[in-house]
Amino acid sequence: MSTTTRTPGQTIGPFFGYALPYEGDADLVPPGSPGSIRLHGWVYDGAGNPIPDALLEIWQTDAEGNVPQAEGSLHRDGWTFTGWGRADTDPNGHYTFSTVLPGPAKEGAAPFFALTVFARGLLDKLHTRIYLPEHPSNAGDPLLVSLSEDERATLVATADATGLRFDIHLQGDRETTFLTYG
Amino acid sequence: MTATTETQADLSAEIAQIEANSTEAEAAGQNVRQPLLDYPPYRSSILRHPTKDPRHADPETIELWAPCFGHSDVEPLEADLTIAGSNEPIGERITVSGRVLDGEGRPVRNQLVEIWQANSAGRYIHKREQHPAPLDPNFTGVGRCLTDAEGRYRFQTIKPGPYPWGNHINAWRPAHIHFSLFGRAFTQRLITQMYFPSDPLFALDPIYQSITSQKDRDALVAKYDHDLSTPEYSMGYSWDIVLTGPSRTWTEPEEGDL
Fold it and tell me: Tens digit of pLDDT for each residue in A80-94?
């Protein structure tokens, strides 16, 4: 058994904007390149107001389902898929990633984007997943099948003209289902 | 800043009550989340904390791996926050160093560490920052580095000042450095704040006090480390970081990996 104390999280605070975002952070692939999709949405608080100072990070398999282990996320070369990206919300609470659809990491597994959420007012990170709409493997996904229909709906993106939309509600009737890993 | 009529005494009473409740819950065998997410003394958290318990998920493949960063991502000079301008920044020069470890005490190697902080007057370079303390043209307050083969990071910077914020009347944050960390798995991702020893603002600060157990709060406080101090130059602080969360099976690095 471990004797070390886990380091607790603290809020990202209001002033990360000059430190963590960087040029190209949200573009895992160049926007508009063949096979690219836009993954976007809004982040809301419990009053339904958009959150303009949230930071989201996604981490995903490539289109074939491989786990990327290439460096280069901080200085993207336009060719290397690193699988990780970061997007801060704009004054309207909107975020946008340019990426590809993740492939299944194992035969028959439901692919998803792993997502972490940080914001001023949020005292620690939140983990969740963004599943793909209408994906045949969703029906057998252990997490999705363990949830109620309403909870499940908060974890599945919706298709739109340019890719996928996924909104995050920190509170409220449509509160996103957040995850803990045992 | 939002106008508020609440005083530190009002806040301190709320802080004390929540800590008493948490201590009681822990004594009764309940597991209290550290920090609490539902922590009304931090007013901005009221509408921004989930109200439902998180659902348990067995981590899938992608969650058991972490993104990979390397020397193409980070320049060694980015670990020195005192060289951004043509002159030295104003303030007390400090070295902050420590190890990033997993829950079993194993080093997190070759992984990204990002920091940001206020200057010595307590001012951030941020367009929404309202505090009328001076900016320092020689200090941006942003740094990055990669951990080494022992999981060690090291930054050269200046000691940040405390700064006022609008949570309540006369609210001041204890001096801190924001840290962003990646572990060996995405489940271990962490953003937190490092504090300095014996800060008189600890008891008053709702963000620090959202961690209701003293042992867990202590884990965010660096130690003064005389061996890290440099003669005639800077003061040293050491702070180790422990990232927990499931990851894939640990393997000893092979020759040539480092």
Answer: 999 999 999 999 999
Q: Catalytic one among B99, B123, B144, B176?
A: B176
Distance CA B251, CA B247 (A): 11
Q: How far is A162 from chain B (nearest CA, A)?
A: 25
B184: closest CA of chain A, how far (Å): 12
Phi, psi of B26 (to 5 degrees): -65, -40
Q: Which residues pair with A177 in a beta bridge?
A: none
- The CB density around residue A158, as the number of other CB atoms within 10 Å, is 12
pTM score: 0.96
pLDDT in tens, B109-149: 999 999 999 999 999 987 767 788 899 999 999 999 999 99
Nearest CA in chain B to A91: B128
pLDDT at res. A1: 40
Q: Supply angle C-alpha B12, B14, B15, rounded to 5.
A: 60
Contact list in A for residue B219 (CB cut-off 8 A) is: 5-8
Burial zone of B151 (CB within 10 Å; 0-12 exposed, 13-18 middle, 19+ buried): buried
User: Which whole-number Å values give the CA distances from B162 to A48, B167, B176, B191, B250, in the listed order?
Assistant: 33, 14, 8, 19, 40
Tens of pLDDT, residues B45-91:
999 999 999 999 999 999 999 999 999 999 999 999 999 889 999 99
pLDDT per residue over B236-251, tens digit each?
Answer: 999 999 999 998 876 6
Q: Is B56 labeled as catalytic in the residue annotation?
A: no
Chain B interface, best mutation among A12, A23, A71, A152, by max B CB count within 10 A:
A71
Measure the CA–CA gap between B132 and B166, rounded to whole angstroms.
14
Whether A158 contacts A133, CB under 8 Å: yes
For residue B223, give the H/E element and its range.
strand B223-224
- State the pairing for strand pair B223-224/B190-195: unpaired
Beta bridge partners of B142: B116
Distance from CA of B232 to the nearest CA of A (A): 30
Closest chain B CA to residue A77? B72
